[in-house]
Amino acid sequence: SIFNVYPQLENGKWTRVDIHRRDNLTPTRFKAIIGSIKELVSKGYNINFIEMSATRFALDHYHLRNEIEKLQKNSNFLFTKVWPEYAHVIEFYESEHCFAAFTDSGCVQEEMNELGQLCLTCRFNTDRPETIKDAKTNLIVPPINTEIIVKMFEHVSKNEVLIKEMISGKKLYGENV
After folding, report:
1. Which of 128, 148, 151, 150 is nearest to 138 (CA)?
2. Which of 16, 132, 142, 160 sits 20 to 30 Å CA-CA off 123?
């Protein structure tokens, strides 16, 4: 179980952050994303930041690793390598401890629709527009700057009506997916 690997995830609701697309690893966008993670943690949100290969490169290239390592003193922040098993990811997303996915992955947008969980897509557009237009289970959060990312995250997190609408959105990808 992922909760045996990372028992901290059993405390409250967590947002799993996975950023790996090259267009989000430019200096302006990546620094905005890291800034938003820092601010959300300081505001008390539970954040699990996944270090993917591209993320590792950007953290080191822009000398931001120290900023992330400082956050590890907070009980509401977890910085992990890619999880050992894909089943762990699904287990977490299906659990009561998942608040949302904050991602730039197209596949995660599809998975969150199927699993009935919130998806906040860190991009300016998506190749999965049906998750926004038809299902309404996904929200684009453009990585313009830290302030916009945090405001959009808080807009969702503080709006119970919106949360209910997003998690009960139409399933798009058929039966027994």
Report:
1. 128
2. 160
Write the DSSP string, 12-63.
S-EEEEE---GGGGSHHHHHHHHHHHHHHHHTT-EEEEEE-HHHHHHHHHTT
Distance (Å, whole) CA 76 – CA 78: 7
Residues of the chain where predicted confidence (pLDDT) is lower than 50: none
CB atoms within 10 A of CB 69: 11
User: What's the Rg (C-alpha) of the chain?
Assistant: 15
**Rounded-to-integer distance, Cα 13 and Cα 174, Å:** 28
Tens digits of residue pLDDT in 49-91: 999 999 999 999 999 999 999 999 999 999 999 998 999 999 9
pLDDT of res. 69: 95
Q: Which of 160, 142, 161, 162 is nearest to 152 (CA)?
A: 142
The answer to whether 80 touches 51, Cβ cutoff 8 Å, is yes
Distances (CA, A) of 27 to 32, 75, 95, 145: 8, 28, 34, 11
Q: DSSP assignment of 109-141, as one string?
A: HHHHHHHT-EEEE-SSS-S-THHHHTS--EEE-
The residue type found at 140 is: I
Kindly list the strands in the beta sheet with 138-140, ordered across the sheet, starting from the edge strand earlier in the chain.
Answer: 77-81, 46-51, 14-18, 98-103, 118-121, 138-140
